[in-house]
Amino acid sequence: MRNGARGGRRGHRSALPLALLAAFGLVAAVSPSPAPDPVASPGDRVITAPEPTPDPAPDPTPTPTPEPPAPPVDPATLPRPALEAILPSGLPTARGATGLAAVPRDALVVGYTAPSGTPAIALEAAGLGIQARWAVTDTSAGWVQVLVPFGRGALPSVDPERTNHVAAWVRAADVEVTPAAVLTLSLAARTLTVGDRTFPVAVGRDATPTPTGLCAVVGQVFDPHVGDALLTSCQSQAMDEFYAGTGYAVIALHADPEGGAAIGHARSNGCVRMRAGDFTELLAAVPAGSVVQIVD
Fold first, then answer.
1. pTM summary value
2. Is the dihedral angle over the CA atoms 129, 193, 95, 269 positive or is it negative?
3. What backbone torsions phi and psi does residue 198 show, to the nearest 5 degrees?
């Protein structure tokens, strides 16, 4: 019995600490073990993200091949403006004056439709037997726009709005730019002003009015009907020709063939008439290339 009791006590001593440990949650078996990784079943597909494909290196930009320079233009192959000529289409319309004139450096100067545009005409340096001076109407880098001295954009019977004010672009290197005289003709007041001088004049009648806008003096001629005259770049917008068979109707400044009786009236076919003494004074003061602004 004693041995059994002693053995029982040993068994009790052994059981009690385990019970206490279990009560305090300190037995290793009670602590949760980490969950195992799930194992894919044989039927499951494992999707793996693809490796990123690097962008291909861009091809180097090829160096552009420069365009060959345009071949030089032979002005002798281009049409030349003349009093009776209809000018090529595509030339610009002059809208204003600069108070400058362009003197050509060569016998023929190419006129273009625009800066670096299409060659259209060849302007002659000797207009009406004198050194040409063209009214400058605009400028751009390396270029000068001038009023074409002769010819028309269209006949008045076809399109009177295109008859006058045709311009062309010339290379700045081909001309020398100088100051130009500016004349102002008032149709309403019937006066012509040059600098500080104002002259009474006669202008076109209602049926054949003097055209408005920008013109230029292009030279002096002798006309058997009126004597000496200063021709302008403008032509009538009402008549295709003043005299049958001439093919033009150029607006000119000249002495009044009626001895001054027409001065102050609207009596001409479009020309500007002056008293004989006033016209003589004008001849000495107004060279070719002078700008004529005609206003209502």
1. 0.75
2. negative
3. -125, 125
Residue 255: predicted pLDDT? 97
Give me the numbers of helices (H) and strands (E) for the chain, helices first please.
Answer: 2, 18
- Give the H/E segment covering residue 280: helix 276-285
Tokens 């009791």 sit at which residue? 5
DSSP string, 182-208: EEEEETTTTEEEETTEEEEEEEE-TTS
Which residue from 91, 87, 139, 79 is spatially nearest to 118, judged by alpha carbons?
91
Q: What is the set of domains in the chain, with CATH numbers?
A: 76-179 (no CATH), 182-295 (2.40.440.10)
CB 254 within 8 A of CB 201: no
CA 186 to chain CA centroid, nearest Å: 31
- Asked if 180 and 195 touch (Cβ cutoff 8 Å), the reply is no
pLDDT surpassing 50 at residue 24: no
Confirm if 211 and 237 have CB atoms less than 8 A apart: yes
Q: What Rg do the C-alpha atoms of the chain give, in angstroms? A: 49
Q: What is the DSSP letter of 285?
A: H
> Does the structure show a pLDDT above 80 at 173?
yes
At 115-141, the pLDDT tens digits run 999 999 999 998 887 899 999 999 999
**Torsion, CA 268, CA 166, CA 161, CA 292, rounded to 10:** -40
pLDDT of residue 95: 78
* CB neighbour list of residue 31: distance below 8 Å, 6 or more residues apart: 25
What is the per-residue pLDDT for 83? 94
Nearest-angstrom CA–CA distance, 44 and 40: 6
73 vs 203: which has the higher pLDDT: 203
- Tell me how far apart the alpha carbons of residues 235 and 238 are, in angstroms, rounded to a whole number: 9
